[in-house]
Amino acid sequence: MALFSFIQSLNTTFGTSIFEPVAKTIASANFKSASSQQVAGTRISSEAFDVIEQIMRGLTTATIKPNKQSEIESIRTVCQQGDMKAVKLTKVDIKLISKKDEIFLIDIKTAKPNAGGFKEFKRTLLQWVAAYLSENPNAIVQCLIAIPYNPYEPKPYERWTMQGMIDTTTELKVANEFWDFLGGVGTYEQLLDIFERVGIELRPEIDAYFGKYHA
């Protein structure tokens, strides 16, 4: 249990201390702007809240399929209608602005989320869109879930856990999809090489630490 807790804490630490700053640094060379721990917005209209609930209800009952572009446009049409409600949302891990002024709001997930987890992730993405559009109604905005590595490697990532909730073609980037999106083709392979070299260099320290968990 102690070892399990340590591995879980490593996952969290890697997300905030390694993956976020590395992603920001890589993206800075290819995007107009790259920043971390950003606020998507501070208000969501009451009409947008209603649309988000309709989308979530439809996805949960499988009466609709996830369609990111359709969802964004549905929220856009009501993003400034009704009462504006103050919100305090989860911060955006990485915010990118492309050279064409497209906005990308990225939620980095380091653990292996279960099906229930993706429901809350989806709600967060929809709320980010609503909050951002409330202040920038004409913006081209996209929200993504990024998983920095594939825990099932060399097998494909098991996307079935999120089917029916996440638009897996446009709303999810795993491993090479994420890093190559930030830095161009080949970025992921270069990162793997760097991590391997660092791992070899630190191997004595890593072995010494894990050694205390042996019976």
Explain the overall architecture:
This protein is an alpha/beta fold. The protein has one domain (about 25-205). It is built from 7 helices and 7 strands; from the N terminus they run αββααβββαββααα. Strands 1-4-5-6-7 form a 5-stranded mixed β-sheet. A hairpin with a 5-residue loop joins strand 4 (about 90-95) and strand 5 (about 105-110). It is globular. The mean pLDDT is about 90.
How would you sum up this structure in a few lines?
The protein is of the alpha/beta class. The protein has seven helices and seven strands.
What percentage of amino acids are in beta strands? 15-25%
Q: Spans of 5+ residues with little confidence (pLDDT < 50)?
A: none
Structural class: alpha/beta
Q: Please state the CA-atom Rg, rounded to the nearest Å.
A: 19 Å
How confident overall, as mean pLDDT?
89
Q: How many helices in DSSP terms?
A: 7
